[in-house]
C-alpha cells in the first residue's frame, strides 16, 4: 500500500512538472466567438451589404424581394450616415424580411482598440437597433473583416458570432461594374455548394447595375437567395422586443 501511494504522488508531481496534468495556477482562457466564413446549406447564396443604412437600401431590397429572396444588412451606427437619421430605412429593411446585423458603430478597425472600446463600438449600434426595430443582433461583421482574439472574446461576451465572407464583389475597392459582373459570372459558373457574398450598400453601381445582373445569374445557376441566419440555420437575433419611442435627446449620433 505504501509503495502504491508513493507511486501516485511521484506520478502526479512529474505530470505537473512536465505540463501533462492540470495546474492550479493556470489562467482561464476566455471563450472566443465563432467566426463564420461561409454558409452551410447547399444551394444557398447569402448576399450581404455593409456600411449602411444608406440611400440605396430600398433599391437593393426591391431587387432581392422581386427575385423571391432576402439579404442581410450589416449596419453601422455612425459611418456614412447617422443610423437615427436613417431610422425609416432600418425599419423598411426589417419589415421586408431582410436580416439586420451589426457592423459596429463608427467602422473602426477593432483590432486597434481596447476591450472597453470594442464593447462600446458594439453596444452603441446594438442600442440603436433595439430602439429603432426592437432587436438585438446575433451576428456582427467586423469592419474591414479584421478581428483578433480580443475581438472574438468581446463578441462572445455580447453573444454575437462574427461573419466574414467567401466572395467579394469588389465594390468597395474601385472595381468597375464590368469587373463586379465578371466576378459574379465566374462564381455562378464554378458553382460552389454555397456563397456568402460581401457587397456594400453605399455603392450606387451595386444597387442599380451589378445586382440586376448578378441576381438572375445566381438564380439561373440554381441558387436560392437567403439571409446569413438562414444559410447557417441559426437565429438572426438574440432578442426581439418592442421598438422604442423616438427621442430627440437620445436618438442622435
From TrEMBL:
Keywords: Carbohydrate metabolism, Cell membrane, Cell wall biogenesis/degradation, Glycoprotein, GPI-anchor, Hydrolase, Lipoprotein, Membrane, Metal-binding, Signal. Its main location: membrane. One of its GO terms (biological process) is cell wall organization. Residues 1-16 form the signal peptide. GO terms for molecular function: hydrolase activity, acting on carbon-nitrogen (but not peptide) bonds; metal ion binding. It holds the Pfam family Polysacc_deac_1. It is found in: Cell membrane. Its cofactor is Co(2+). GO terms for cellular component: plasma membrane; side of membrane. InterPro entries: Glyco_hydro/deAcase_b/a-brl, NODB_dom. It is a lipid-anchor; GPI-anchor. Residues 43-226 form the NodB homology domain. PANTHER family: CHITIN DEACETYLASE, CHITIN DEACETYLASE-RELATED. This is Carbohydrate esterase family 4 protein. It comes from Mycena metata. The lineage of its organism: Eukaryota, Fungi, Dikarya, Basidiomycota, Agaricomycotina.
Amino acid at each position: 500500500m505504501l509503495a502504491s501511494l508513493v507511486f501516485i504522488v511521484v506520478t502526479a508531481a512529474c505530470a505537473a512538472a512536465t505540463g501533462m496534468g492540470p495546474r492550479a495556477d493556470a489562467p482561464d482562457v476566455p471563450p472566443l466567438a465563432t467566426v463564420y466564413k461561409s454558409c452551410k446549406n447547399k444551394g444557398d447564396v447569402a448576399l450581404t451589404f455593409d456600411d449602411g443604412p444608406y440611400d440605396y437600401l430600398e433599391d437593393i431590397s426591391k431587387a432581392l424581394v422581386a427575385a423571391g429572396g432576402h439579404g442581410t444588412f450589416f449596419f453601422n451606427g455612425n459611418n456614412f450616415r447617422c443610423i437615427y437619421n436613417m431610422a425609416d430605412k432600418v425599419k423598411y429593411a426589417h419589415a421586408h424580411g431582410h436580416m439586420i446585423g451589426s457592423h459596429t458603430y463608427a467602422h473602426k478597425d477593432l483590432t486597434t482598440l481596447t476591450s472597453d472600446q470594442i464593447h462600446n463600438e458594439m453596444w452603441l449600434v446594438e442600442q440603436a437597433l433595439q430602439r429603432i426595430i426592437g432587436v438585438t443582433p446575433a451576428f456582427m461583421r467586423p469592419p474591414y473583416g479584421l478581428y483578433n482574439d480580443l475581438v472574438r472574446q468581446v463578441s462572445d461576451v455580447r453573444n454575437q458570432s462574427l461573419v466574414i465572407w467567401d466572395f467579394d464583389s469588389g465594390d468597395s475597392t474601385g472595381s468597375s461594374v464590368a469587373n463586379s459582373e465578371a466576378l459574379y459570372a465566374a462564381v455562378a459558373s464554378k458553382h460552389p455548394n454555397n456563397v456568402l457574398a460581401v457587397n456594400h450598400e453605399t455603392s450606387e453601381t451595386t444597387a442599380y447595375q451589378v445586382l440586376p445582373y448578378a441576381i438572375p445569374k445566381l438564380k439561373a445557376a440554381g441558387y436560392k437567395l437567403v439571409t446569413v441566419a438562414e444559410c447557417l440555420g441559426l437565429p438572426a437575433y438574440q432578442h426581439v422586443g418592442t421598438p422604442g419611442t423616438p427621442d430627440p435627446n437620445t436618438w442622435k449620433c
